[in-house]
What does this fold into?
Amino acid sequence: MTFVLQIAIDAISLGSMYSLTALGIGLIFGILRLINFAHGDFITIGAYALIVPAAAVVATPFIGTWPAFFLIPAIISIVIVIALLTEFIAFRPLRGANMASLLIASFAVSYVFQHIIILIYTGRPKAVNVGIELAQHIEFVGLRVPAIQLVAIGAAITLLGGLALFLKRTAYGVQMRAAAEDFETARLLGVRANTVIALAFAISGLLAAVVSLIFITQTGVLSFRMSLNLVIIAFISTVIGGMGSLFGAAAGGFLVGVMSTALQTVLPDDYKLTRDAFVFGFVILVLIFRPQGLIVTKAVRERV
It folds into this structure.
């Protein structure tokens, strides 16, 4: 029983990170029909931004004691600003373009971000000691769980619940839902497109920043391609859950996390390295038998 609970916590923790990443991708797609592969670079930028405050205090006697209550809001603010600038500079001029053009633009933005990081920090991986205390294990009812896993689960529950309340109970949330259902009709009814889209990018930046803090605390290594695999898995989660459905994106992330953890547990040692191949195989089956995903929104159903 203890072993099963341990696996369940590992699965939910991994699914939480996938879910938050998939939600950031699904939020933008729901409104703009844009698959923003640059979302992974938002995560990378959030992680690399940790170096800035560290460098700023090198000459002071307080090095290594940068307070978390300041660091976390700073990283979140930086990523949100980057997300908003990306929308304003790269995607707003292409708003009337087709999906293929937007997709190519997102790849271009991603490569620009990666090479800016290389120019500033070089392409060599860097070790970062952030949140070392969260790497400690917490023991309860016979389980030894890293504190960062509990933080990841708590962050996912808080952000998913907060976003659900925001979309249902606030005026801007209702406008975002209306834009996701029918963007042109929503504009005719008075929804301000620039405001809604900017807000969607700001929320996706917030989600990316939280994921970057969790991810770098778990790995402790910075790389300009550190989030590539994460964003691919998140995109897969979005496809499984249903493109355009925020609930589907979140559910798909948890499903992929559970699958990955379960396969890592049950597969023989010789096949553990091929775990992702089994996950991708499941995606192919979903696309064959249910190409619209597990959850289909009204807007997507009408387009089909």
